[in-house]
Structures are given as C-alpha cells and as structure tokens.
Design a protein that fits this description.
Elements: H1 2-5, H2 12-24, H3 28-40, H4 47-59, H5 63-75
C-alpha cells in the first residue's frame, strides 16, 4: 500500500519478490494473501510466481495448498 501511496505500481516481479520473502520466513498466509491481492489488482502471476508458491507450500508441509495452487496454475493464462 505504501508503493501505491507514492504512485508506484507493483508489477509481477515486485509481487514475486515479496511472495518469495514471505515463503522464506514461513509466512504462507501472507504469501497467499499477497498472491490474491496481485490477481485482484490485475497483475498476472507467471511461472516464477507459481514456482515460488509451490516451493513454499511443499517445503512447509502444506501439500493441500500446493495442490490447490497447482490447479490454479493449470487454469491460468501465464505469460
């Protein structure tokens, strides 16, 4: 939200960086929330985004969330 306030528009790389950071520290809820925000803001996830999330979920034993993310990936239009 700070970026928006300053007139900066986050892109896929920006979101990927923050999602990766949240996954690294095990804050998967924040990573998922940011992923959802990304989509709601019209920023499309790419293969890197999904790879980050899948890795984060699998490394933290969240296999059900990983499977759900994989299903979303299969349905999405990636660049």
């Amino acid at each position: 939200h700070e970026m928006s306030r300053r007139g900066l528009v986050p892109n896929t790389v920006t979101y990927n960086t923050f999602i990766h950071g949240f996954c690294l520290v095990g804050n998967l809820n924040a990573a998922q929330d940011l992923f959802n925000e990304m989509i709601s803001q019209g920023v499309y996830p790419n293969i890197v985004t999904f790879g980050i999330l899948l890795d984060g979920f699998c490394n933290n034993g969240k296999l059900e969330q990983a499977l759900e993310t994989f299903k979303v990936m299969q349905k999405s239009k990636m660049e």
